[in-house]
Amino acid sequence: MTSHHRLSATTYVVLGLVSIRPMTGYELTAYAELSIGNFFPLTRSHIYAELDRLGRLGLLDATEVEQENAPTKRVHEITPAGRDELRRWLEDPEIKEDRTRSLFLVRIFFGDRLSPGQLSALLDDFEARAVIRRDRLAAIADKLAGQPALVFRRSTAMLGVRHEQAMLDWVAEARPMLLAEAEATATGGGGAGDRAGYASQPGLPR
Amino acid sequence: MTSHHRLSATTYVVLGLVSIRPMTGYELTAYAELSIGNFFPLTRSHIYAELDRLGRLGLLDATEVEQENAPTKRVHEITPAGRDELRRWLEDPEIKEDRTRSLFLVRIFFGDRLSPGQLSALLDDFEARAVIRRDRLAAIADKLAGQPALVFRRSTAMLGVRHEQAMLDWVAEARPMLLAEAEATATGGGGAGDRAGYASQPGLPR
DNA sequence: TTTGACATGTAAGCCGTTACATGATTTA
DNA sequence: TAAATCATGTAACGGCTTACATGTCAAA
Questions:
Q1: Is residue B110 classed as helix, strand or coil in its secondary structure?
Q2: Distance CA B148, CA A103 (A)
């Protein structure tokens, strides 16, 4: 008798993390941030809510553990039903990708509204953050090297490294073009105001 | 007197699109999907709701236009207050990037739960979709080439191309490693069950 | 004595998706 | 006559974030 639940992706992710080993909400928060947080961020509040939900559904079991030097903690453990449910989800070929949104790209899209200085600062900031993320992910990948069982986790970090490097390559390529246009607009006609030509040249493919 | 609103990113994006030229909700939906939809997807329902909100705030003006061969349409146009508000948002250096989540990476992270066949199918699907997106974005970038004023929009497409290409490069690199491990796990000890070793080897950097 | 780590939750509220609902006109 | 395009909305619901709220112990 397989009871077929419809849960959110976040719920399954929390279930998956607990399936690795029993954890408290607190531990899970830290663990999630270091691991899956790089491509699926979770908030602590949300984690607690999901642990509660999973418990009510019988997919997790909670055990209170008293401690000497710390408050009583609640350790969550996956149940057989939880494992079934998790596997079903992981194997489901129908899962559709989450939307991805980039406010950075929105601002580039409307880049003609920015002064050269503002545009330059925007690119610098984007670049600096990408470098930090890339290096952090590269360090993670390094640390996981050499252990075949960890190749899955390591690969997620490596994808992140490639992604950030691609962003950096893009900045290097795009910056001169974007700044040249921003300066031409600022010094040439129109100043910082909205330029005409959009209605007739919406700049979109048919 | 600048009335300082706190609106969601989506609200500003809709405002920004209307600022390009006056549009109906219907037009805007199509326009958004082709342009900004590649990095900031919007749903029609949401667009209508935001147009309504922006109208109530006085950032947009709506005009009903009767037509001969189609129902009356409502054309939305940005107001001076709307332009101010939009510019303020675009120039704000404090805007923080949206979370990005990848369910694909979640599944790779838990890749040891998948059979070699399932893993291979997952990678194939990811790769095929990346190729489609890359080629579509490359076509957009091509079409926008040669027009200096469109370099901002073109750059967003180029970033997308780089991103998708990076994903494809990653698949080429990661696939052999992932499949090798999946096969070793499937044929070697333990079968498809959960392997031990996670508690002692959580696979995370300290 | 104050900061940080450990530890757990509640409440409010917007955000965003999906489904529901309608109807005319043109084209194949 | 069926499908596609034009055109606009409402309603329900869940997802997710942010802020609020509390308390111990160890170390600096």
A1: coil
A2: 23
